[in-house]
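Researcher: We're teaching a course module on how sequence relates to structure. For the next exercise, students receive a sequence and then see the predicted structure as tokens, so they can try to spot secondary structure elements on their own. Here is the exercise chain.
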Amino acid sequence: VGSTFLSYMLIIVGQKNLRPTVAGMYNYIQPLVATLVAVCWGMETFDPTKICSVLLIFSGVYLVTTSRSRADAEKSRLQPENPRKRQ
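Model: And here is the predicted structure for the students to work with:
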């Protein structure tokens, strides 16, 4: 109860003080860390389902961190293109 309650309370604090992508990454990676700890303690095993889940989590986190924000996309759309960059 303490670890789950405390971690979700820290997510709320993180959303107030950090960028939303950082708080979201923590939220998505938390089950992965719990699974890794369980595997290290011998309470769980890695199977193809868990490996697929890990790949999906990391691909989602990668997509979120590499995507541009709406403000950046609008800013680049409104700025005139520099002809020197094309060459």
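Model: If you want an answer key for the exercise: The chain has a mean pLDDT of 77. The two ends are 59 Å apart (CA to CA).
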